[in-house]
Amino acid sequence: MNISEAEKRDFLDAAIEAAKLGGDKLIKWMGKVDVQEKGPRDPVTQADFESQQAISDHLMAKFPDHQFLGEESTDKSLVSTPGVFCWVVDPLDGTVNYVHQLNSFSVSIALRCGGETIVGVVFDPVIGEMFCAIAGHGATLNGKPISHSGCTDIGKALVVCSFSSSANRDHPEVERFLRVLGQAASIRRLGSAALNLCFVACGRVDSYWATGLSCWDIAAGWLILQETGAVMKTIEGGEVDFFEPKFCAAATEKMFVAMQEHLLI
Prior knowledge:
This protein is α+β, with helices and mostly antiparallel strands. Helix content is 34%, strand content 26%. The chain has two domains: 5-145, 2-Layer Sandwich (Fructose-1,6-Bisphosphatase, Chain A, domain 1), CATH 3.30.540; 154-263, D-Maltodextrin-Binding Protein, domain 2 (3-Layer(aba) Sandwich), CATH 3.40.190. The chain is built from seven helices and 14 strands. A seven-stranded mixed sheet has the order 3-4-5-6-7-8-9, with helices on both faces. A five-stranded mixed sheet has the order 11-10-12-14-13, sandwiched between helices. The protein has a two-stranded antiparallel ribbon with strand order 1-2. Helix 5 (193-201) runs parallel beside helix 6 (215-226). The longest helix has 25 residues, at 5-29. It is globular.
């Protein structure tokens, strides 16, 4: 589908506005929510639903012919339908942090059409950081261009990871964690996949791996990362499946190979 540059800019502006509206809801409810559980160690709050509703209302009012896929709604078939614009939204990425009032959570919004991501926005409402990208136009943080760290030495790398909520001591991620821990300069588990990808994109973090995420966790951050020239592949080195995202992201190809050596089990 031929999409004009003006249309792409309109899409990005709408995503930025929607992310701010969602972020406002998160700040409003922080410290006041009743927590429910979608599954073991998988909480959801009223803030999730209110943030998603605010985002959906804004985007659907501006683009009534578009479709919407949020974490709290699960018709994934719309995301790759040819000729169909579909917003892919995580209204609160980092719910556990949010519930504990730990300031590392975000709103993630991406627009897809025919299997391609057109725009992506990740917003940290606590400190007001807005990561943005339009496909083919680079990535920005609060309007300023960003780039990855260029790190090639795992011994100097700050690495982050995401574990599944069901992980136990025998989970493969634990072995991966211990392997990387012995090689990297330092390792973190920060709690927001969308922000983790953006942190690789802007050079704060040198690599990130995860194997238990969903498409709404990574839709926006993946585009932002790609637009800086950073690497994102499956741990085996193949193309990442948007619907089953299991991957390692790295600032450089050399860093990816170094990570891969310790992540392959």
